[in-house]
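Q: How do we represent a protein-ligand complex in a form that can be generated token by token?
A: Start from the inputs.
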Amino acid sequence: MSANVSMRDALYEAPGPKTRRRVAIGTGISVVLLLGLIAFVIRQFYVNDQLNPRYWSFFARWTTWRFLLRGLAGTIRVAFTAGIIAMILGLLLMLGRISHNRPLSVACHVITDLFRSLPSLLLIYFFFLVIPKYGLRMPSFWMITVPVALAASGVLAEVFRAGVNAVPKGQSEAAMALGMTHGKITRKIVLPQALRIVVPSLVSQLVVVVKDTTVAYVVSYPDLMQNARVLISNYDALVSMYFVVALIYIAINYATNQFSIYLAHREGTSIMSRTTENPV
Amino acid sequence: MAIETATPVIELRHVDKHYGPLHVLRDINLSVAKGEVLVVIGPSGSGKSTMCRTINRLETIDSGEILIEGTPLPQEGKELAALRAKVGMVFQSFNLFAHKTILQNVTMGPIEVLHTPREQAEAEAMELLRRVGVDSQAAKVPAQLSGGQQQRVAIARSLAMHPTAMLFDEPTSALDPEMINEVLAVMVELAQEGMTMVVVTHEMNFARRVANRVVFMADGQIVEQNSPDEFFDHPQSQRAKDFLESIKGH
Ligand SMILES: Nc1ncnc2c1ncn2[C@@H]1O[C@H](COP(=O)(O)OP(=O)(O)OP(=O)(O)O)[C@@H](O)[C@H]1O
Ligand SMILES: [Mg+2]
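Then emit the structure tokens for the protein with magnesium ion bound:
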């Protein structure tokens, strides 16, 4: 089962000498352009006096980093909690939607589309401004986590459904022919295979969750973004601070993506062979 | 002809089915007696698979009636599942559960449907795997087996349910030539043990050897039926003559 590993080989022919030369030239041009862009950015920073030590010196202080790391911890806590809730809720929504119970199926379909199409900021305002009016006060952690989770659950329900649809029809037909019921077929045959298929896209969706958490400042929850804003007003250092925070977000999401690629490669090989090692 | 008993194991009465404008099954009447081996043959698109799949309701029908041991096929739910459990089905593409081992494939039905204790299910499964000659592969996953081995496992998986009848939809069509015989051998043995079988196949030697009756389908209709020797040596209809001529080519 090396299908995933050799996907590149299947999609692209191995390059010949001419192609390789063209690739080398292309790479050269890209590097030059990229260096030019970086030089331009640095120049613009310089021209606008953004390289002034005044804007950067506070990064040498531990307290700055401690404050940012606390924010990062907040971001991770929200993203992780919201991710878990979204997965469970997304799975339930998908199961409801594919069930043979017509009203349940329609309800789950509507809820999925609703969560998917509402901007998460709108959901956050709903939990921040509307719900408290009716007497339900939530800590700010939940005011950001719940709406982010709801928005993601709609998307994840669709991801799960794509996985279910990707399981060949013959699998459930064979199970039907054995006399298994719809519920058992879903649990024992379809879901285990569907989950393996969707693991990589599931992890990629966590990137969206992490990005959604950046509006936590709306509810004054101290996440990375909120703490960065506090530092910005303290030191009056907008550009340098946003620059560093952007790098941190890029690093988190890059790591998440790498993790999903790693899982995609593992998915075909070791999960299958692990099943072989424990026959029962 | 096979031994006739009061109630046929499988009976189709005036079965009709459409796919949109396409009339795939036209007034099909067929009854299969206990212990009978029925071979269904016909050109591509004539409705052989569709007929086979209606018998355990993998396809619904528009009108008519299908009875298993005299009981009308239920429409849905637990009753349908229970009746399906009595009719084994072997597919052209094997359809072994890809995430389960060979042994788990065979124990799935007994454990999940018949609620057989695991130990007993496994012992029976190993015995069946021995019978079809793949017991040494029990701990592997389907992707690690050859097509012929996978199809023999699929037969064992069906047999584990102690079915009263078995349906085969072109069980050897997806196999490399050298693997066809190992699968046919298992089916011949089953037929000789008295299993009631409906087999869609173009394997004429198999049909001559074990079939009690050959049913020829074209354009969703049963055009003629006869004993294998009569059918292959003296086809009555022009459609059957043309068809037999066309498959003699290879
Ligand atoms: N799900 C479907 N939707 C629409 N048309 C279908 C569907 N399944 C089969 N058909 C059509 O119904 C007709 C009968 O198909 P069927 O698979 O029963 O034929 P067959 O005799 O088994 O042919 P083959 O020898 O190629 O397997 C064909 O014309 C086919 O294209
Ligand atoms: Mg067919």
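Chain B is about 40% helix and 25% strand. Residues B 19, 22, 24, 42, 44-50 surround adenosine-5'-triphosphate (ligand 1) (CB under 6 Å).
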